[in-house]
Amino acid sequence: MPSERSANDVLDRDFLEIRRDILNIAAAIDRVGATADHEALKTDPRVGKILQALNILIDPERDKSIRVQMAFSIDYDPEWQANKAAASHK
């Protein structure tokens, strides 16, 4: 459902926070890239999740927050309680 506020109103209120958050993400990615073993990160699944989330942000489709949350979520395991109980008995 569209907001009652205009896009301009939302940007006036949120632009600086959005800018700050994007700069924080860029700085974190730069820190990872500056490590001695940064090449090993090409196979790290967390990097894949970050890239997937960034692609969602530039996708014109809506519901970005839900889609980004799902990118970082694990698939539901209907046996999670049994697996948790079995792991705690080891």
What does this molecule look like?
The protein is an all-alpha fold and 90 residues long. It has two domains: 39 residues, no CATH class; 47 residues, no CATH class. It contains four helices and no strands. α2 runs antiparallel to α3. The longest helix is centred in the first third of the chain and has 27 residues. It is flat.
Topology:
Blueprint: H1 7-33, H2 45-58, H3 64-72, H4 80-88
* SSE class: mainly alpha
Percent in strands: under 5%
Largest sheet: none
Quaternary status of these chains? single chain
- What is the count of DSSP helices, taking H or I runs of 4+ residues? 4
Bin the helical content. 55-70%
* Low confidence ranges: none
Radius of gyration, in Å, reads 19 Å
What's the order of the H and E elements?
Answer: HHHH
Task: Summarize, please.
The protein is mainly α. Helix content is 66%, strand content 0%.
Characteristic terms for this protein:
2 domains, 90 residues, single chain, mainly alpha, flat
